[in-house]
Q: What sequence folds into this?
């Protein structure tokens, strides 16, 4: 059973080159700028909720950068930045944060629940671990159709205790499904420490029970995350089955804008991880190798922030949500009982002056 | 036209759907070479290969969860859950994932899949091989819930369910698997998923039922007829979406209604039928709506024949309503 804790022996094909590292750095920086802007909007009361990826940019984007465009990325929570990097338009990202009429999910999910069909980033639910068997089933379907696309299934440390983790890894092992399990161990499942999730020596050890080889790497070393996932993708594409990749990292802010992490963890711990910031680490490497100029980071931050602000401005002006979306997409066609329910509601809001043009009743 | 039992009709329906569409596959516990504990999947692995009909590890959560992923990525999975009682380990995947996927994604992702499962009592299966459970699922928007009671409907509703764009929970009344026989056309046909079935006409009392209770209703109706009470029996057949207009039409026809199911009474499906009629046809009612149901207890074993509504209890309710 492979349990490689270093990635120094990675095959050359899985190593990110200099141009790739610089590109990854820009995506990481963009995600941080975006999170900062979203937090400001949340504090200003413009959006309801934010779960940031601060501190996790290297793990999430490093891992996702290894995927080919045809591969799928199943999100567990904080992978919205990966969706952006792989093709989710910034306008759709921000529309989702506003849960407005431009949101492709029609404002039905709370903030931070991104999806993007074009880059194979499925809708996910807030119930932890449920996407793991979905990804395994979809990987099974991929192989059944003769495609070599691989399904990267992301989840956090807390999800390793869920039914979905057990069922998903067990089925994937038995089926040799073409998938890579990416565990972002960020230290905390809301307020429960990773050390309180399991008596196993590490989350990577869990792979052994399912007959799945595991890699454990420094999640704040973005190129190392890329390499580890790239190795898993190679195995999956070669028909060798799934790999579990555990990325050790740290969630620098609260679980969400509603969480106060000072209640459950020490400032010293946060400070220790702040010194290992994944963006700073990659910046140092790029500066040393001559792939980034002194002062360039600051320029990039102001460019990226300006782009983000322009899109926020657009999304602030989104049209109101059509009331009919209340009952649409429950089934492929709106059934009779929902037409009746909606029409009764529509009659009430119309009489009280809340319905807008375009909110018309359904034909019965 | 061949005469088949209900379980043979299910088997025929699966084979017909698998022959028509390569993306249809069947999996679950013991559905492979064994052919299922009730033999509903007999012969599938030998005809279609182990890629299209296979056994899974023993995890209902995993069976339904992977089915959702397959459905999201182009396959038409038909998952079998050994007994309806074992849907509960998969409850979250059914109600929070399969049922809500289309809605939460604004129609971008869907889960066209079927969960087939033997349902109801009458086989001395005790608490965990006898439950109905339909009310848990009919409370879930996004699911379709189907219960056949004849071999013809079993095949036609199953094919319609497999071809449906939305997830369907297909509840097979196991007490009827081998106790009813009927003519079943060869080849493909389907039965609409939103229309009730009129079992027999009668002028005095309308009796709404589904699943194994349809045969109980017929026996009770025969006895009522001997006493001069004509019973109009309606097999609801698709509980969600419910044929509400059909229910109202049949209720108005007699003005006297009995609702029959074997599941517990409190918040049972009969409550919805009663409320629907009370809200939209109360002015036609000439008697209180009566319910005949299982008890509000766990499912028993030794006394299951008393827990399950029988013709005696149904006849009593029919007479009460008819003579009110």
A:
């Amino acid at each position: 059973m492979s349990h490689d804790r270093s990635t120094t022996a990675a095959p050359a094909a899985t190593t990110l080159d200099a141009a790739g590292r610089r590109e990854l750095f820009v995506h990481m920086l963009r995600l941080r700028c975006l999170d900062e802007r979203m937090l400001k909007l949340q504090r200003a009361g413009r959006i309801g909720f934010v779960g940031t990826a601060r501190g996790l940019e290297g793990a999430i984007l490093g891992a996702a950068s290894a995927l080919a465009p045809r591969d799928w990325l199943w999100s567990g929570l904080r992978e919205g930045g990966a969706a952006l990097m792989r093709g989710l338009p910034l306008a759709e990202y921000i529309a989702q944060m506003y849960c407005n009429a431009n949101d492709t999910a029609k404002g039905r999910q709370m903030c931070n629940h991104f999806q993007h069909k074009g880059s194979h980033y499925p809708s996910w639910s807030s119930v932890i671990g449920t996407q793991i068997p979905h990804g395994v089933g979809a990987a099974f379907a991929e192989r059944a159709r003769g495609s070599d696309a691989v399904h990267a299934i992301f989840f956090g440390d807390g999800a390793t205790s869920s039914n979905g983790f057990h069922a998903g890894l067990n089925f994937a092992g038995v089926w040799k499904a073409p998938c890579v399990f990416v565990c972002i161990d960020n230290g905390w499942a809301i307020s429960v420490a990773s050390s309180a999730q399991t008596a196993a020596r590490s989350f990577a050890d869990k792979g052994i029970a399912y007959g799945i080889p595991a890699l454990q790497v420094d999640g704040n070393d973005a190129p190392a995350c890329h390499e580890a996932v790239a190795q898993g993708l190679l195995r999956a594409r070669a028909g060798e089955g799934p790999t579990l990749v555990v990325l050790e990292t740290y969630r620098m802010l609260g679980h969400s804008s509603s969480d106060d992490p000072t209640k459950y963890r020490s400032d010293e711990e946060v400070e220790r991880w702040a010194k290992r910031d994944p963006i700073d680490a990659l910046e140092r490497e790029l500066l040393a190798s001559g792939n980034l100029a002194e002062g360039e980071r600051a320029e990039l931050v102001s460019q990226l922030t300006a782009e983000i602000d322009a899109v926020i401005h657009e999304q602030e002006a989104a049209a109101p949500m059509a009331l009919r979306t209340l009952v649409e997409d429950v089934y492929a066609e709106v059934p009779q009982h929902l037409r009746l329910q909606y029409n009764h509601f529509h009659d009430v809001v119309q009489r009280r002056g809340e319905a807008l043009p375009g909110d018309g009743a359904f034909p019965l | 036209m061949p005469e088949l039992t209900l379980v043979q009709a299910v088997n025929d329906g699966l084979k017909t759907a698998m022959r028509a569409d390569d993306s249809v596959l069947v999996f679950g516990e013991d559905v492979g070479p064994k052919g299922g504990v009730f033999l509903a999947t007999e012969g599938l692995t030998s005809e279609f290969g182990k890629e299209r009909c296979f056994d899974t590890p023993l995890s209902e959560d995993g069976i339904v969860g992977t089915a959702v992923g397959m459905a999201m990525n182009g396959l038409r999975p038909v998952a079998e859950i050994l007994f309806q009682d074992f849907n509960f380990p998969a409850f979250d995947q059914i109600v929070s994932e399969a049922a809500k996927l289309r809605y939460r994604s604004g129609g971008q992702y869907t889960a066209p899949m079927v969960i087939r499962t033997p349902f109801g009592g009458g086989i001395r299966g005790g608490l965990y091989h006898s439950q109905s459970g339909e009310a848990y699922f009919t409370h879930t928007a996004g699911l379709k819930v189907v219960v056949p009671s004849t071999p013809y409907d079993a095949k036609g509703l199953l094919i319609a369910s497999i071809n449906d764009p939305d997830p369907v929970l297909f509840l097979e009344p196991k007490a009827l698997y081998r106790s009813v026989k009927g003519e079943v056309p060869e080849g493909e046909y389907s039965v609409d998923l939103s229309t009730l079935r009129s079992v027999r006409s009668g002028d005095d009392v309308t009796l709404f039922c589904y699943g194994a209770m349809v045969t109980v209703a017929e026996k009770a109706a025969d006895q009522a007829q001997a006493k001069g009470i004509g019973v109009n029996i309606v097999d609801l057949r698709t509980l969600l979406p419910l044929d509400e207009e059909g229910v109202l039409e049949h209720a108005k026809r007699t003005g006297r209604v009995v609702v029959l199911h074997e599941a517990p009474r409190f918040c049972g499906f009969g409550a919805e039928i009663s409320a629907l009629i009370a809200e939209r046809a109360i002015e036609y009612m000439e008697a209180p709506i009566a319910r005949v149901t299982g008890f509000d207890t766990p499912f028993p074993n030794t006394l299951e024949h008393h827990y399950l509504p029988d013709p005696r209890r149904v006849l009593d309710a029919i007479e009460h309503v008819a003579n009110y």
